[in-house]
């Protein structure tokens, strides 16, 4: 393909344009995924949360591309509901628990993909529990 630019004819490499377009789409996809990542509660407010102290409010994970880490010194202790809720259709890249997670009587400690009676599910790609020796 030929085009006029700056008074000269320039050759456009269609493969180069295709690659640039493909990389642009990939970048938009990654940015969109990160924009959908949300972790709320426990002092968390974005798609990456690192808990290193005691939290007493429920942590809700939604969207895609989340990372939730509870350090050895961290804990999530909730009395009136589940401690952590991975909402239906959420996708968490990493959930790493080195601390303590507890909830009140008759409550699930961690809910994964439950939202009423409407089915669904959640995905956790990497789930780590580090056991101390």
Short description:
The chain is α/β, with parallel strands linked by helices and 133 residues long. It is 17% helix and 42% strand.
How would you characterize the overall build of this protein?
The chain is α/β, with parallel strands linked by helices and 133 residues long. The protein is built from 1 helix and 13 strands, in the order E-E-H-E-E-E-E-E-E-E-E-E-E-E. The chain has one helix at residues 14-36, and strands spanning 2-5, 8-11, 38-40, 48-51, 54-55, 59-62, 64-70, 75-78, 84-86, 91-97, 100-103, 110-112, 123-129. The strands form 4 sheets. It has a 4-stranded mixed β-sheet with strand order 3-6-9-12, with no helix packed on it. Strands 4-7-10-13 form a 4-stranded parallel β-sheet. A hairpin with a 2-residue loop joins strand 1 and strand 2 (8-11).
Spell out the key features of this protein.
133 residues, alpha/beta, 1 helix
Ordered list of secondary-structure elements with their pairings:
Layout: E1 2-5, E2 8-11, H1 14-36, E3 38-40, E4 48-51, E5 54-55, E6 59-62, E7 64-70, E8 75-78, E9 84-86, E10 91-97, E11 100-103, E12 110-112, E13 123-129
């Amino acid at each position: 393909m030929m085009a006029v630019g700056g008074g000269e004819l320039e050759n456009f490499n269609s493969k180069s344009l295709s690659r640039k377009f493909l990389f642009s789409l990939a970048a938009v996809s990654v940015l969109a995924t990160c924009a959908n990542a949300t972790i709320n509660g426990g002092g968390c407010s974005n798609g990456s949360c690192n808990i290193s102290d005691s939290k007493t409010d429920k942590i809700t994970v939604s969207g895609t591309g989340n990372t939730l880490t509870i350090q050895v010194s961290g804990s999530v202790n909730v009395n009136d509901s589940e401690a952590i809720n991975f909402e239906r259709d959420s996708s968490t890249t990493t959930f790493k628990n080195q601390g303590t997670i507890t909830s009140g009587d008759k409550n699930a400690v961690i809910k994964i993909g439950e939202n009423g009676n409407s089915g669904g599910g959640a995905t956790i790609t990497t789930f780590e529990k580090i056991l101390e020796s």
